[in-house]
Here is the input.
Amino acid sequence: MTSQMVTKHFQAAQEARQKGNLVLARQSLEMALQLDPQNAGIHNALGNLELDARNFQKAADHYRAAIAADGKAPVLWLNLARAMREGGDAPGEKEALDAALALDQRNFLARVRRAEWFDRHDQAADGFLDWSGILQMLSSADAEDPAIADVLSKAKGAVEAFMAQFSAVVDPAMQEASEGLGYEEVRRVNAFVDTALGRRRIYRNECAGLMYPMLPADEFFPRSHFPWMDFFEEKIPAIRNELEALLRDQEGSFRPYVSMAPGTPENKWSPLNNSKSWNAGYLWKYGQPCSDVLERCPETAMALSQVKDRFDAPGRGPTAFFSLLQPHSHIPPHTGVSNLRAIIHVPLIVPAGCWFRVGGETRVWEEGKIFAFDDTIEHEARNESDALRGILIFDVWNPHILPHERDLIRQFFKSAEAAGMPNESQFDI
Here is the structure.
């Protein structure tokens, strides 16, 4: 009977509150409380009434009584935190928010309220941790929802502000500590610092074909791995002359780099499919010489023959070609097939406004300056100029694969080919 009366009074209080009759609502709740003094729901409802009336101390007393009856409900701690905040009790609010999160670290509202508390009390480092956690929670949320968008904006702003403050201290210190060191000597530590400061991400190998395990995922390989680069750069003027001769008579020398099989679903390569925006003139392809171009480029052929670590797995390499990217053309972000190789770019004709990104690092091609990269890390290229960009591309063994490993890999491909293993027609550079 007592339980039924409590329920009756509680329902009457809810109806009265909905109608705006707060006096009747309080009376009904107080009668219910006389019948059940330890009822957490009644104390919470009375706390809400007192909060609406701006009686913050009375509201807090009721919330504490509710918590004493049921201390495992985060919402009660959140209500107490609100009473503390509006009543000007900052330590009390923080204590209540900590208690709510101690019950459930994933409680979104408690995390937001504590992050805001840290901001109001100039505790940016602690606030950064909470706002970062909030960003993770919202990573799959609907950003179009106005409420979500508002919190997302606050979180991003707080994280960016803290990172800017942090960077203002770290960057000068790191610059001073790196003084006198060359680009290659600081490249990895700079990537580490930029990642720690949220300025870049770390990209992993993504092999569509065969992945060789336990190799470093290095975006651009250090030049020290390739002692032949100095010699090769001396040959660049002659190689450029041969490319320019081919360009004067392109018939038969170049064809679209992207040529998808009929019926291929629409994808990121569709805009370049059978398009002359990105053309290739092959000297070697998957280990086979392409005589129509190779015979017209003896200086290029000679230079390539001097590169002792060209990728020569049976049926897979070497590959070498002139790559032409037309004005205002874009090669979309993509990854190659296997990290067995390193890809070499030899810039020959490079107007201003051409760039190349691998992972988190973007470079501009410089005529005559060779570089090597891992094409199983996401990369893309763009020619934003009004002129043609032309480079020589070829593959060499990944420098982290040891000579005896290369021999065994060659044997694997030779045996696999004999067993009927198909070649990856998408083996991509």
Notes: DSSP finds 15 helices and twelve strands in the chain. The CA atoms of residues 57 and 87 lie 7 Å apart. Residues 146-177 form the longest helix (32 residues).
